[in-house]
Amino acid sequence: MFEDRAGKVLVDLLSEWGVDHIYGMPGDSINQLMEELRKEKDKMKFIQVRHEEAGALAAASYAKLTGKLGVCLSIAGPGAIHLLNGLYDAKKDSAPVLVLAGQVPTDQIGTDAFQEINMQRMFEDVAVFNEQVVSEEQLPALVNQAVRTAYAEKGPAVLTIPDDIPAAKIKKHVQKNAAIYEEPEQVPSSTEMEKALELIGNAKKPIILAGTGTKGAKQELEQFSDKIAAPVIVSLPAKGVIDDDHPNCLGNLGMIGTKPAYEAMEDSDLVILIGTSFPYVEFLPEGVSYIQIDNDPLKIGKRYPVNVGIAGDSQKSLTRLNERITRTENRDFLENSQEKMAKWWKEMEEDEQQTSTPIKPQQIIAEVQKIAEDDAVLSVDVGNVTVWAARHFRMKTTQKFLTSSWLATMGCGLPGAIASKMAYSDRQAIALCGDGGFSMNMQDFLTAVKYNLPMVVVVFNNERIGMIKYEQEAKGNLDYKTNLESFNFAQFAENCGGKGYRVENFEDLGPSIRAAASFNKPVIVDVCIEDEPPIPGKLSYEQVTSYSKQTIKKLFEKGKLEVPPIRKGLKRM
Questions:
Q1: How far apart, in whole angstroms, are the C-alpha atoms of residue 344 and residue 341?
Q2: How far apart are the first and last CA of the chain?
Q3: Cα separation of 293 and 270, whole Å?
Q4: Class of domain 353-570
Q5: For 457-522, what is the HEC assignment?
Q6: pLDDT tens digits, residue range 322-338?
Q7: What is the CATH topology of the domain spanning 6-162?
Q8: Secretion signal: which residues (predicted)?
Q9: Which of 37, 205, 33 is nearest to 105 (CA)?
Q10: Phi, psi dihedrals of residue 12, rounded to the nearest 5°
Q11: What confidence tens digit (pLDDT) does each residue in 273-310 have?
């Protein structure tokens, strides 16, 4: 190590940690680090993005998909500021990310130099680790500690590096610490396990709410559900931990969820939360018993009046419970939920199987389903498209689902698809985006083209920010400033060097999506869709009256009558 350049040591350490690529954009205060990356390009691939936000979102997506460290690089000032949205996405979704942020040279810090800002103060809220390197000798220890902290606390670790540091040689003797992080093994408490077994044994209507913590326990979850005769509801980011077509699966809960999930939750007498900190407590019943299993003790009891809390790994906890539980004979609650879910799927299929023009978003999902491979990665942007994907796409446990779950930032779909191809080059990547969300980071379609990352990007083009329009109307207001200018995303794809299909008629939908899936390059399928409101799985009286209020208001103020989908609304009451 001694007499090595600090920048080379940095790249070597990242390689030891298993990092093989970095997202970023070159610039003033990282020129020396870029030179080191150039020299080590066979070891460390640099993915040049067109906007640092896309780089941070891609790094977060990579970490969510793989559990491995995502890394992004930026200059001081504007570049670092651009990272924040993606870093908050990583923080909210518990994704380990390392930020290498440039800074002005050490002798200029504090002089109000060009592009200098107080980086540590800016990153203070978002970062789980936030340090500035003050000497080349300090760099190795800080790199290792930053990575360890990102893994341990599952969030963004920031290392600010003045531009003169990477080129400097480490001359003094430095005790090199280890590029090692070992995940602690949490053994469930036998006392709490006994309490949980007693509650489960006494329950007549148990229900499971499974989160991302069950991704490593898919078989155990399915076995547990069958043994205790409990239907399974999944949080949105956990979509795919159980097959959507599994008879015990009721889909999601909440505004994007299903009516059977809502009704089963309301009717339950025991809620078992596994690997989730589900934030929408208004959809959880009162006056029932709760069991919570989580590997983070801080989350147990954080949102719910938990009767039993088990701090432990979901797979180990479920394995122990399955070993002690005998198969429940009374399966009335489960079978009733299954019957309701079968009816729900028939209702969904009515929309999916329509052959009308204008095209409905549900029809698009049905066509995407046909071309989705068994190990496909589905990157879904935020907005109405999230609802259509959550309700209509039948995920398999062999596929992967990706979105911005708790920050819910628009513009995450394309960076997620880029990260998908970097993580799994041999797997199909599909991005589902609204026109509003896609246009926020559409410039990085050029990144997909530049690095030849085959993917299918489907744009649901209704020329408006559809979810916000619905939210405004659901409050009894008229929609305001939600409309967007018409844009041909297929032509944009062609101009970028990719392939584009513009779909305006249903007859062209299936052939265009099938053709897109056959191309070995980035493709955009731009589908013009009908403005379809994402009616909640279970409508409340307040929602119905508010929506009726805006309908009458629109008639009197604009002389325009838009009749809501009454038949569908009545079914959801």
A1: 5
A2: 68
A3: 14
A4: alpha beta
A5: EEEEECCECHHHHHHHHHCCCCCCCCECCCCCHHHHHHHHCCEEEEECCHHHHHHHHHHHHHCCCE
A6: 999 999 999 999 999 99
A7: Rossmann fold (3.40.50)
A8: none
A9: 33
A10: -60, -40
A11: 999 999 999 999 999 999 999 999 999 999 988 999 99
Count CB-CB contacts under 10 A for residue 51.
Answer: 20
Q: Which CATH architecture has domain 190-341?
A: 3-Layer(aba) Sandwich (3.40)
Query: Of how many residues is the chain composed?
Result: 573
C-alpha dist (Å) from residue 252 to 283, 386, 388, 439: 11, 12, 12, 27
448 by DSSP, 3-state: which? helix
The secondary structure of residue 254, as a DSSP letter, is S
Residue 571 is inside which H or E element, if any?
A: helix 566-571
Q: Which residues pair with 210 in a beta bridge?
A: 234, 274
Measure CA 539 to chain center: 26
For 305, the token pair is: 């009046």
Interior angle at CA 232, CA 227 and CA 237, nearest 5: 135
* pLDDT tops 90 at residue 573: no
Q: How many CB atoms lie within 10 A of CB 4?
A: 14
Domain residue ranges of the chain, discontinuous segments joined by +: 6-162, 190-341, 353-570
Matching fold, domains 6-162 and 190-341: yes
Evaluate if residue 452 carries a pLDDT over 60: yes
- Is 303 in contact with 276 (CB distance < 8 Å)? no
Distance (Å, whole) CA 172 – CA 542:
70
Which pLDDT value is given to residue 304? 87
Give the CA distances from residue 140 to residues 18, 41, 391, 571, in Å, rounded to whole numbers and listed in that order: 16, 20, 47, 61
Neighbouring C-alpha atoms within 13 Å toward the C-beta of 256: 23
* Rounded CA separation 305/543 (Å): 28
Q: Which of 408, 357, 353, 414 is nearest to 386 (CA)?
A: 408
